[in-house]
What does this fold into?
Amino acid sequence: MTFFKTSTRKVAFTFVAICVIYTIFSLVESGFYLSSAEITIVNSEIKADRKVSTKFVPSQPLLLPKDPHFTLLLQTYRRNDLLEMVLYQWTEMKSIKRIVLVWNNIGQPVPSFVYGIVQRTNTTLYVITPAVNKPCNRLNVSADLMTDAIIVSDDDIVISEEALIEGYHWWRKFGADKLLGYDCRGYVTSSNGSYVYPKTKIKNLGNSIVLPAPYMIHKNNYKRLKDMPTKAWQMMESLGRCDDITVNFYIAYLLKDKDHMFCMHTPSLRKIDKLATDFRGQRFTGQHINTRTYCLNKLVEIYGYMPLKTINVLLKLTV
It folds into this structure.
């Protein structure tokens, strides 16, 4: 009887050990890295009527290759000095296979340094020259120019390739139908039930919106942006500064009860807009925060409810 119990324990232990080893190998094989990231749960005091997520539940992910092949969707306006700096950074990354530059400087030629910087590498460059300067122009580019993994970035962002690759593997694991952001924001619910976009990050608020600083979106979801409600497109075009919020709303709407985004923190991320000698950016204009608050409430009106969930998980990278 004693021998039977001992044997049973050994068999059970061996089975558990095999399962653990198999799981580890499966994670490594799937590109899931744990070495340079930790998960932080933000203990927020949030109203009970808000949808709050404190864990990631892998969804049915859109397919992504094991190795990252990015398309950089980079939009620029009146910041050639910053554009030159960030182009050098982006083109040094071997994982950036294509660059789609949305040139919003209407009537001005694309400077020669753009082509000179890219030609040093094996990166393919596409230059889009819209007829009218609108921030939402970056949502109107043909998806045929893109790889499956698209990085959407403003022209004042510096980040390491290691952080992008690490983020890619987490994104691939948890579901590329979500948005992955490196700079994220939450929103505040006022006493009258309206929504407020905060001027600065609020500790323990959680995240609901990924900013183009940068964020990753799957090509299939990018294609679907053309199907956003007409009123949402009209709002973006008239206000000129809410395309990122509008994308977050639509992806959250598509995913229904699933998390629509997750956020990563990397010490390599830098915003260099203060170095601009011409246009420093919309956030330095007086109505920027008020306009984004208006966008939140207008989109709730368009969709009939608030689809954005508060994600209380932050993945912290060391790279």
